[in-house]
Amino acid sequence: MRIAPLVEPGPPLGPEQAERASRHLLLPGVGLTGQRRLRAARVCVVGAGGLGAPVLQYLAAAGVGTIGIVDDDVVDVSNLQRQVVHGSSDVGRPKVDSARDAVLALDPTIVVRTHDLRLTATNAPDVLADYDLVVDGSDNFPTRYVVSDAAAAAGLPVVWGSVLRFDAQVAVFWATAPGGGPTLRDLFPTPSAPDEVPSCAEAGVLGALCGQVGSVMATEVVKLVCGIGEPLLGRVLVLDALRARWSQVPLVVPKRSDERPADPAPTTVDADEVPEIRPDELAARLADPADPVVVIDVREPAEIAVAAMPGAVPVPLASVLDGSALRDWPYPGPVVVLCHVGARSRLAAQVLRSAGIDATNLAGGIVAWRSSELATR
């Protein structure tokens, strides 16, 4: 879906600006007018970490005229493996200051606004009020929901990315896009509990993967500002770095109460329509030879190595989300899906049920299973 340019063109480019942007000026759809749009654009980047670092570098290099940087953290030596906007001499400095210096080193004519704070539902509307677009490179679910909700209320598009270990996702959320668009809550209806999804500090992340994903996010910003190409609206781009495979998952926008009925679209199962089973109920089913239920474990291999359910079949969540696991699905009967405490498996079961598979979520995940007396008898 093509959209109109997000930003009106700014003043004519000066000679140095034109020379700096000469390779952009050759591009159809960008040219002088598009570059003037970029110079007039005001982009807020939330997070000056793994994703924010390459986004900031490429937005500055692209000539975005005003860049906001939101982060309340300081540079740690462990950040340097992937947060390439910072250097060894920046350890201990506020990330917003280090990132600002790196941006101005690329182009000293850019206006940089620093926000040394953590976004909350209270301060987010004021912080985002003076921007045209938001880039969400944050590393935790509470901040992601704050960004999504505040941007939706303000009518701002959000370029969103997420990385963990060797996997990544990128999407554009824009509730007020022409025809209506998705928000983060359409992808993840409810926030995960703090212990449901491991952080990069707990699970690790491939440094170079942040550069790949950040570059895609910066490209989406340029497309939205200039009105070129097809943005990632209604699609989630999924990268499996170990297999070097990009894929995309459709993100169906639910009909909102203030919208006219849209044309029929592929249906998905709501999260609250996914049935759940308790550990004792699952134990009883597994003990019944007349009930050939298959248990699917959507956790990562390292998690399974720590705590596995005997007989469970490993099917990584990413392969369910990108559809690759469904191409030759070998289990015609009912399946029970498990993860650590039940959040990722609920999402997987939602996708599986949308594909016509009789999937049930194990309430409480492997944690509840291991603590169940029946499971240990």
Automatic annotation (TrEMBL):
Q: Where is the Rhodanese domain?
A: 289-374
Q: Which GO terms describe its cellular component?
A: cytosol
Keyword field: ATP-binding, Nucleotide-binding, Nucleotidyltransferase, Transferase
Q: InterPro entries of this UniProt entry?
A: Rhodanese-like_dom, Rhodanese-like_dom_sf, ThiF/MoeB/HesA, ThiF_NAD_FAD-bd, Ubiquitin-activating_enz
Q: Name one GO molecular function term.
A: ATP binding
Q: Which domain of life is it from?
A: Bacteria
By what name is this protein known? Adenylyltransferase/sulfurtransferase MoeZ
> What gene is it encoded by?
moeZ
